[in-house]
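Problem 3 from the worked examples.
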Amino acid sequence: MRLTSAGSPLRRRKVAVAGVALSDCGRVDGATPYALHAQAARRALADSGLDRSVIDGFASAGLGTLAPVEVAEYLGLRPTWVDSTSVGGATWEVMAAHAADAIAAGHADAVLLVYGSTARADLKAGRRTANLSFGTRGPLQFEAPYGHTLIAKYAMAARRHQHQYGTTLEQLARIAVQARANAAANPDALYREPITVDEVLSGPMIADPFTALHCCVRSDGGCAVLLVAEDHVPDLAPRPVWVLGAGTAVSHSAMAEWPDFTVSPAAVSGRLAFERAGVRPAEIDFAEIYDAFTYMTLVTLEDLGFCAKGEGGAFVEQGRLLRGGALPVNTDGGGLSACHPGMRGLFLLVEAVRQLRGEAGPDRQVRRPDGSLPELAVASGTGGWFCSSGTVVLGRG
């Protein structure tokens, strides 16, 4: 137990989400990634109602050689607490966990998490290729010569789940169909037109068994989340959303070191997050889950405890993931339909907060069976090829 100078226990402060925002998203041809960072940051600060002078912590990854230094400089910030953890798509949930701990311990008062990417625009303009390479050094040198791409790793894991538990391609396709149905009511979603299971199954093959609609969209966009100590809550413009608990975990780098292709590190991060929040999966009103591929949604639902291992296929069949379903998942349309500029984890937190505040709009606001606003949400990010996971439990203030 940490003690104050007087010898009494040091109280851990509660942590609230003060502001959230998206930058322009989807097709953004006239902006740089730095500009999207700045746009999202300004909007999140405006959403909070706080002055920028309160920000003393900053977290950023994926842009620049010294990500938090360069981006903070661009934003005109001089933070005294920084984080540049980069573990793929789970980065932002891991950073949120780090920031919440720092705020609770008194090492920072207000931490801004911000992300922006022009992945789609860069590809269209020829500034980058479609290939995503993690290099051939270290453990990956034993896989790269065989063309074992990132998507191939996910496809291999999905095939293992099919073999071991009888999961069908139709069940995986229903995840994409429900994500698109959720996106239909989201004006910010890149794709909103309905799709069918047959359309998912008959699309062009990307990596067996994944056709194009089993895979996330490629978009531009950014977002920001401002976390603050409870001391700032009386000054907030919106009702606060509280960080109740968080957990992080890493699993493997080389596929040969992954003990079980049907279990992701969310099985660990989720358990820790729920334990620290003092809630059970059955109490969660909706979930925001990283979905670069349909299989990610299915296996994460299992690993978070929403259904038993191997029962994910049956769980997603009955429309449970729809906005009005038993467990709404990816209420904005997710990476499969709404947006996916690269590392999507921060978008999960933005959507979760908006839903908990009741700000999603009449056509897509999640409500409990009695018509009231949701009370509890979980956001779970995945990084690499199920290499890392961060899970955050949020509660309405």
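Problem 4, a separate protein:
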Amino acid sequence: MTYTTISHEIEDGVLTVTLDRPDQLNSFTPQMADELEQTFREVNDDDTVRAVIVTGAGRAFCAGMDLTADGNVFGLDETMSPSLADMGRLDDPRAHRGVRDTGGRVTLAIHDCRKPVIAAINGAAVGIGATMTLAMDARIVSSKARIGFVFGRIGIVPEAASSWFLPRIVGLPAALDLVLSADILDAQSTVDVGPARGPHEPEELLIAARELADRWTKGRSPVAVALARQMLRRNAARDHPVEAHRIDSLAMWHTSLGDGKEGVTAFPEKRDPEFTGRASQMPDFYDEWLQR
């Protein structure tokens, strides 16, 4: 894909994805959704990347959906009459393009990603600009950041699967207040409520994001990082810890024969381990588990 709404830059194993429509405050479009979804699907097989940072060009992170587009600004097909049963067939081409929320396609791709994802929120992040970050593993804010779940102001609902992500991050009472009030919070208030870290001075934002990416992934097994990320995200939502135990057992078995063997050997030798596992080559059970 030739990117027209975002840009990519890789440095020392960290992919920085920049939302790149600065003249439109990086407002979100169906094309941007396609480009972000493809980015987070393809990065799983790119073993040169160990972490992803997402930020915005110019003075905004993402000012929400581009409301200037012709027709349905959300890119939805108004001739359709979708039912709950239709949502059981998410891969159906008509539902995929005409009914499925574009932000949700992005956040599901982020959720499935095998690499840690960090939002470096440099300015306004409202609507989808806020909800897309909830699927990421950390949100770091600049002192110039402004965050708002403003859907109630224009008569729509929170999207991008944020009704699943937001309560898990801030708790249900805070999530209800953020969504129903539709307030726009400054950087410090956002940190106080709980969904973000910081605030940082603008010139220090990407430095802080990179430091976190390094702390999480440098010198780590890519396979173990991918598994740990998904285990925490998925097992916490299970009804009983025995379900986590099943996956823990499989993941421990596989990693103990892979990078874990090198890690155990390196520890008493007081040297850095030389991990050879690749996130592009996950254990056999991995894909089946993610589809459950």
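Solution to problem 4. The beta strands are 6-11, 14-19, 51-56, 60-62, 117-121, 124-126, 138-142, 146-148, 184-186, 197-200. The longest strand covers residues 6-11.
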